[in-house]
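User: Hello, can you help with two protein structures?

Assistant: Certainly.
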Amino acid sequence: MSERKNWHEYFMDIAKLASTRSTCDRKYVGAVIVRDRVILTTGYNGSMAGAPHCDDAGHLMIYGHCTRTIHAEMNAIAQAAKNGIMIEGADLYVTARPCWNCFRVIANTGIRNVYYSEEYRPDKNINKNIKYVKTKLIKLE
C-alpha cells in the first residue's frame, strides 16, 4: 500500500488542480481556503464573472501585469464573501507566493497561515510588513 499524503500535500494538490481552471496563460495559480481540515472555498486566476478571459480576448496589460485577471487568492476570498463563509482563522494553500495586494487582503481577512509552493516575484513590502500582522507565510517544499 502506498504512503498516505499528509494534509499539506493533500490541500496543495487540490490548489494545483484548481490552477488548471486558470484562464490567463501568463501564470496558472490555484488557491484553497481550509479550516479544521475542511475545504471552505477554492479559487484560480481568472477574469471577472461574465467578462472575457485572457484565453479569449488577450491580456489587458498595465505596467507589465495582466489586469484582466483576478488572482486565485482573491477569487477564493470573494467566493467566501459571496457565500457567507467565515474565513477568519483559516489557512490558505496557494500554488504561488502571494503578491503584495493579495497579501494585504489575506491579512485583513484574518487568515492565519498562507502555505505556498512556488516563489513568484517575492515582494519586499510583504517582508517589511509581515511582522505587523498575524498572518504567516510558509513555503512548502
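That covers the first. Now for the second protein you mentioned:
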Amino acid sequence: MLALALVVFLCGPVLVGGQVAAVTTASPIEPGGAVGLAAPSYSGVPKGPPVLPGAFWGTATVGGSSLSAGTSITVWISDTQVAQTTSLINGSASVYSLDIPGDDPDTPEREGGNTGEVVRFKIGPVWANESGTWESGSVVNLNLTADSLASASTRWIAAYGYSAGGWTSQDKYPRMVGDVNGDGKADIVGFGSAGAYVSLSTGSAFGTSTRWIATFGYSAGGWTSQDKYPRMVADVNGDGRDDIVGFASAGVYVSLSTGNGFASPTRWLNSYGVSAGGWTSQDRYPRMLADMNGDGKDDVVGFSSARPLVALSTGSGFSTPLPWTNGFGASSSAWASQGRNPRCAADVNGDGRADIVGFGNDGTHVSLTNSGLTVGSRPQVVATAAFEESSSTEEIIPDMSQDKANEVAEVGPGSESDYAPWRGEYFANNTLTGEPTVVRDDQDIDFDWGEGAPDVSLPADSFSVRWMCALHFDEGDYIFHALADDGVRLFVDGQPLIDRWAKQEADESTGQAHLTEGKHALTLEYFEAYGGALAKLWWEEVRAADILSSSGPLR
C-alpha cells in the first residue's frame, strides 16, 4: 500500500469515479532530498544518545551514629548543589540513594556533572568525609560519614557542680551563661549563697570563679528560689555586656556590668514581683528578657494571667508594661504551666524584633511582633491567630479574680489601661473632695512631677490623688514605704498603716503589717500643697526578698 500511494503521489492526475482529480505535490523533487517534502532542520536534535546520570548509594552516619529518617543529604559539584535526597532507615542503618544528572553544556547554569568531576556530599549542615567522581551511567556504592556536630565534651572548670562547689539545685543556686565582659564569648554566671560569681571564658576554658557582687544570693539578699525570685543575665542598656536582672518581691532590679564586676543594684520597675503585681511563680507567670523593639536593648516580657506584658528598656529603666498580644496567659488551662506549655520570646522571622512563641497542646504557636513597630513607639494590641483562650477583661495582676479586677479598675477589652493595677482618682483640690477631675489607671505609684502637674487639666499646686488596687500577697511580714512631698497616708484592708497627712518636704514614711495568703486591698491617698510634687510607694517582705547588698537595703 505504501508503494502504491507513492506511485499515485508521483503520477499527478488520477481518475476518481471516472473524473480527473488533481493531486498537488508540496514541492519539486530535489536531488538527495525527500520527495515532495521540505528538508527538515536538525539543529535542535541531539547528535548522540542522552547522557545517563551517575548514581550513588550507601549508608550515612554522623559521629558514628545513624541518622534520623528524613535527614537531608545534598550533592555538590564546583560549589553548586546539583542533587538532594533524604535518608531512609533500613533495619538499624540509615541509607541513601540518588542520581546525579549530567551537566548541559549549552546552558550557563550548572545542572549536574561532567566526566571526572569531584562530587562532594553534605549530611544535614556538615560535609561528609568522603567524595566521589562523576561518570555517566556509573552506579557507585559510597558509605558517607561525617564528624560529630560538636567536639567531645571536656571539663573547662572544676566548679559550679553538685560535688564541685555544692551547687545542689538550679532553683536554689541557678547557673547560666552570658557575655558579661563584651568580648564575644559567653561566660558562666552562678548565683551562689553569698552572691553572683563569674568565670570568664578564654575560648578554651573558664577562668577562676570570682564574686562580682555580694547580692542576688540565697543568703545575700534572700533570693531563696529561682521560681519565686528569678534572676537572669541580659544586655539591658545596649553596651554589649550582659547585666544581671532580678525579679524581687518589690519589682525588677538591675545590676549593670562594668566588664569586671556588677554595679550596685537599682530598681528599674515596680512590677513583675511577688508583691509588685502578684507574680508569685516563674512556672505560672514566666518572665524573661528579649529585644522586642529591635533597639539593641533587652526588654522584660512577662506572661500574666491574660497575656504577655512587655516593659521596654530605656537603657536606664523599664517603661510601663504594655499589652503585647492576646492569649498565652495562665487563665487558660492551655498555658497554666511553663513546665508543660513553655512560652518564650525570640526573633523567628529575622526582622530584628523578638516574637512570642508558645508550645501549646496542639502544636507551636507564634505571634509576630508588629513589623511597623519602631524604636520608642507604642505597639498596638494585636490578635494572634494562634491562641487558645480569650477574655473580655484583662489585667496585669496575675490570678486576680475577675470580680475584684472590675471592682478596682473597671477596665474593658482593648482599653489603654486594661493592664494596670492602680485606679487613680485625681482631684483639683488638696482635700480629695468633690468629683475627681481625672480618673485613670496607673501601673505604679512612682511619680516625681517636680513643679509640674500630673495632667494638663490639673493645677501644678493644690491637687490630691487617691489610688486603689487589690494585690495578691504570700503570708508574711511586709514593710511598706511611702515617699511623698507633701502629705500621704496608706490603708491596707481599710486599716491605716502610714499617716503623714501634713505639708512636708520629700520624706519617707514606713509601716509594717503581717498579711495572710491572698489578695489585700491597698489605698494610698496623697496631696500636694505647693512647690515640688512627689509620690512613691513600694514594699518588701521582711525575710524573703528584702534585697540586701554590702551597702544595706535597696529601694
